[in-house]
Design goal:
Elements (H helix, E strand, L loop, with lengths): L2 E2 L10 E6 L12 E16 L7 H9 L4 E9 L9 H16 L6 E6 L8 H13 L5 H7 L8 E9 L2 E10 L12 E6 L5 H12 L17 E6 L13 H23 L7 E9 L2 H13 L1 H8 L6 H9 L10 E6 L2 E7 L2 E2 L4 H8 L3 E7 L5 E8 L3 H8 L4
Parallel strand pairs: 4-5, 8-9, 10-14
Antiparallel strand pairs: 1-6, 2-3, 3-4, 3-9, 6-7, 7-8, 10-15, 11-12, 11-14, 12-13
Helix pairs in contact: 1-2, 2-3, 5-6, 7-9
Length: 404
């Protein structure tokens, strides 16, 4: 059984975390440097942006993860360390600072950055903040979650306990990213910890399999960041027999991981830049899972639909339009669509054609903070869910002066 617990990335045994303001950001009220450390060397895995323009921290993290192990993650916000001539040198320097102040070999340190692209990042403020960062590692997950935020309006952390081979294991995560979100293989930044014992190979496999139905189905604005990073570290301190192959234990681990990633997808989408509503689209009855994924993702990515839902306008034709260009193999004459919220269910389309509905009731349904779009393709057993948000005036305001 999977149970929600407190603690975020510090819920699993062996992990500590902290976040401080070191001076990368001008606003001293905002933390800008985070550190997560493990008491033991962990098996580790990661997935990253598919953008050809990659932040220097990704290149360093990939290098440090080549052996499948890690012990710490250092993250800064306020500067992406991307498109900088000395970017790799700075990223390696951040890892070296962890070795110097925390005694963890630089090669076992993963590094990530988020913020403005193309601005130089100095090691000076990071070095100045390291003593306080390391000394305060008991501060916990929330401090680290706060330090990685950029335009996020609230911290995103989650943790669960689960059973593997008769042992209680824990898994926790923090994440950030509410703009430049339409990733392939990762969200903007997400760090997962677990005390389950699992090999690097199976950890990497679980991560690759999971993102297909979690972070790859998330969109805020259809922009793929240069710094998307999703990393996981497994301490093995729960004492279960190491998971080295597919089977019941691996399945139990994957279920717990998916519980974490889906919870974060919902948080990230709900906090999309300027967003007022979380949109969750589920497509069922498609010919294949691939068709269902293509269809659901197209719906949550539609700017026209996102704008309509901001205005509580039941313009369901935009759902059909998105399904039609999604690339999914669909029989339009079999498609049913419902809008749903805690205010009720609004059927809007049956067999590809509109049905009569009450506009006042439609407004009530779409005025809620969480809107579900249920699509039945009526053509198979493929099923998928995607997450997005509405498109508001504030999205333009936020991004109109993000750098200045």
């Amino acid at each position: 059984m999977i149970k929600k617990i407190a603690g975020g990335v510090c819920a699993p045994m062996g992990f500590r975390a902290n976040g401080v303001h070191c001076g990368i950001r001008k606003n001293k009220q905002k933390k800008d440097l985070a550190l997560i450390v493990s008491d033991v060397r962990c098996t580790a895995a990661g997935v990253y942006t598919t953008n050809l323009v990659k932040g220097a921290p990704i290149l360093v993290t990939q290098r440090h993860l080549a052996d499948g192990y890690a012990r710490a993650v250092i993250v800064n916000s306020g500067n992406a360390n991307t498109c900088n001539a000395d970017g790799v040198e700075i990223a390696e320097g951040m890892c070296a600072l962890v070795e110097r102040f925390a005694g963890i070999p630089a090669g076992d340190v993963l590094v990530a950055s988020t913020g403005v692209i193309g601005q130089k990042l100095s090691l000076e403020p990071i070095e100045a903040g390291m003593e306080a960062l390391v000394e305060g590692l008991g501060a916990g997950s929330s401090a680290a979650a706060e330090a990685i935020m950029t335009t996020d309006t609230y911290k995103k952390e989650v943790s669960y306990s689960f059973e593997v081979g008769g042992k209680t294991c824990r898994i926790g995560a923090i994440a950030k990213g509410v703009g430049m979100i339409c990733p392939n293989m990762a969200t903007m930044l997400c760090f997962v910890t677990t005390d389950a014992a699992i090999s690097h190979e199976m950890l990497q496999r679980a991560l690759f399999e999971d993102v297909k139905t979690s972070f790859n189905m998330l969109s805020v604005d259809r922009d793929t960041s240069t710094n998307d990073t999703l990393c996981i570290m497994a301490s093995g301190l729960a004492g279960n027999d190491e998971i080295t192959a597919a089977g019941a234990d691996y399945t139990a681990f994957k279920r717990a991981l998916h519980k974490v990633t889906v919870a974060l997808c919902r948080m990230l989408a709900a906090d999309g830049e300027g967003a007022t509503k979380l949109i969750e689209c589920t497509v069922k009855g498609a010919k294949t899972r691939r068709d269902a994924r293509l269809a659901a993702k197209a719906v949550v990515c539609s700017d026209l639909l996102k704008a309509a839902l901001f205005g509580a306008d039941a313009n369901w034709g935009r759902v059909l339009c998105a399904l039609g260009y999604s690339g999914a193999d669909l029989d339009v004459e079999r498609i049913d669509v419902d809008f749903r919220s805690k205010a009720g269910v609004l059927p809007v389309c049956r067999k590809g054609a509109g049905v009569e509905f009450d506009e006042d009731f439609a407004k009530k349904v779409l005025a809620e903070k969480v809107i579900y779009i249920d699509v039945c393709a009526g053509d198979g057993r493929g099923r998928a869910t995607a997450w997005g948000c509405d498109l508001t005036y504030d999205y333009v305001k936020i991004n109109g002066d993000y750098r200045t």
